[in-house]
Design goal:
Largest sheet: 6 strands, mixed
Strand content: 15-25%
Shape: globular
Number of domains: 3
Length: 507
């Protein structure tokens, strides 16, 4: 499959990987024993996770397993019993799991039909190379053909991924040709190795990534290269995406976030971001999305009109409604949420039940509700709890040293922190780093004067999850009564100072 884009030509590149996993056939054809052996784990942990319905807001389901040293054994159902893992499809031929070590994962595809499932799979993990460096064999240590092409794909795509990452900066400045050329090569590699096997969904995923890059390019060509035929090019790419199958149900399920990424970058091609920045100055993307919500949402819905299949349409809209609930005020998100329930409650209960649960979770952390209790420790082992901050405003700052937007807030945070008295205002920085050693290096590097505590577990950290955090930076302002005052709609670089001025007598 070859997509045409006016700013691009084609090329190709290559690389390498090694894991070990053992599937032992059980007496029941509906389950398999999976054994994963790792050469070295150290302080890390290994989990086997079902792929959830929503990439960010669904609760993760982790399979229980037995550990013996660095060997992990799981009973894995090969026939789906959960509507969340196959996105509600009744025809899924493959069950997907993530073999996860800290913040990295290997996508494990397992046939759902007993006639296709291997009698045994042996996976050995080389920790230093994970999620690459896998060896997948049967009980006789023979390679399993169903996995060989994906392992080969991992090897050959590595230099392409590296080159794509290196081109990102040029791409966002309007020099899009080479990035799109690399992306085309990656898509063709995936088609050659994955389009007819167990990992066909991964090929669909790579197709989707390429189509997203094409639509993204329009924004940067307009901004930096004076593109004048954006409407024509946009319509052409939408038609091409439909022709390539992006809006079919199986293709949408294969994407990282359903139709979310495509609709998001499509909406940005209408210069909405530029108009907000002209009016308010430089802002974080999250703030732009809130300020420009009506205009952006109208454009996102234009993409939905290209989706004909009923389940594909319901699945696509689920991601848009969930994003509204998670990122804009509840009263703004409520109409689309209710409309979705009315439209799909009878036909796709797995989707509507997820949204109902998410709605209730967001409502529980909306302003006016009691703050969620926590107990977190600084580097010296001192514990901090919610009650320690009674009588003052406290900003909960969820951050990590790798998050550049988090770091961009620090100068304004330091100035605001110095301006208000500690009896009135405090900042509690809650790290979402997976590795505590990295966290300590970061706090030593930045030397911020406010309280620094560590939660561990990355985005699985209990306080972060309790507040339904979806990404960082993530800010919650608590009031002196221990209630949620503002929920992720404040930024030190945007409006935190004004919010505090309205509430604290600082003269």
């Amino acid at each position: 499959m070859k997509t045409q884009f006016p700013y691009f030509a084609g090329k190709s590149i290559l690389s390498l990987v090694s894991i070990a996993l053992l599937f032992w056939s059980c007496s029941s054809p509906s389950s398999t024993t999976l054994t994963i052996t790792v050469d070295y784990l150290g302080d890390a942990t290994l989990h086997l996770e079902e792929v959830p319905l929503h990439y960010k807001y669904s609760e993760k389901t982790t399979l229980d397993g037995k550990q013996n040293g660095n060997t992990f054994t799981f009973e894995v159902p090969t026939l789906s019993t959960s509507s969340s893992t196959d996105a509600g499809s009744t025809n899924a031929s493959t069950q997907w799991y993530h073999v996860r070590i800290q913040d990295q994962f290997f996508p494990l595809a397992i046939p759902t039909h007993s006639s296709d499932q291997p009698a045994a799979i042996n996976i050995e993990v080389q920790r230093a190379a994970f999620p690459k460096g896998l060896t997948i064999t049967n009980q006789n240590k023979q390679p399993l053909p169903a996995y060989e092409n994906f392992l080969r794909y991992q090897e050959e795509v590595a230099p392409l991924d590296q080159a794509i990452s290196q081109q990102e900066s040029n791409f966002t400045k309007g020099d899009v040709a080479f990035m799109l050329e690399l992306s085309q090569q990656k898509m063709e590699l995936a088609e050659r190795l994955l389009s007819n096997g167990l990992y066909q969904s991964w090929w669909h995923r790579v197709q989707g990534e390429h189509l997203v890059r094409e639509i993204r390019a329009i924004e940067f060509l307009q901004r930096f290269k004076g593109l004048t035929n954006a409407d024509k090019l946009r319509d052409s790419l939408l038609t091409q995406a439909q022709k390539d199958g992006l809006f079919q149900f199986d293709h949408l399920v294969a994407q990282r976030a359903g139709v979310r990424d495509y609709t998001h970058f499509y909406s940005r091609t209408f210069a909405v971001y530029d108009s907000v920045i002209q009016q308010y100055g430089e802002l974080m993307e999250y703030d732009i999305k809130r300020l420009a919500y009506p205009a952006l949402n109208r454009r996102r819905l234009e993409v939905i009109d290209y989706i004909q299949d009923d389940q594909a349409r319901a699945y696509a809209q689920l991601f848009l409604v969930a994003e509204r609930l998670g990122e804009v005020a509840l009263d703004i998100a409520e109409p689309s949420y209710q409309k979705y329930l009315n439209s799909y409650n009878d036909r796709y209960p797995a989707y509507t039940e997820f949204l109902k649960d998410f709605y209730e979770a967001i409502r529980a952390v909306s302003p006016g509700n009691p703050a969620i209790p926590f107990r977190l420790f600084d580097r010296d082992g001192k514990a901090y709890e919610l009650s320690d901050f009674a009588g003052k405003y406290v900003l909960l700052d969820f951050w990590a040293g790798w998050c550049q937007p988090c770091l961009d807030e620090f100068d304004d945070m330091r100035r605001i922190y110095a301006r208000f008295d500690r009896e009135d205002f405090e900042i509690l920085a809650i790290s979402t780093e997976v590795d505590s050693t990295t966290w300590i290096r970061d706090i030593e590097r930045f030397q911020n004067p406010w309280i620094q505590v560590y939660g561990g577990d990355g985005f699985e950290q209990a306080t972060f999850k309790g507040y339904r955090g979806g990404g960082i930076p993530f800010y919650i302002l608590l009031n002196p009564e221990g209630e949620i005052e503002r929920y992720n709609d404040i930024r030190p670089t945007f409006n935190l100072e004004e919010v505090l001025e309205d509430r604290i007598d600082y003269n």
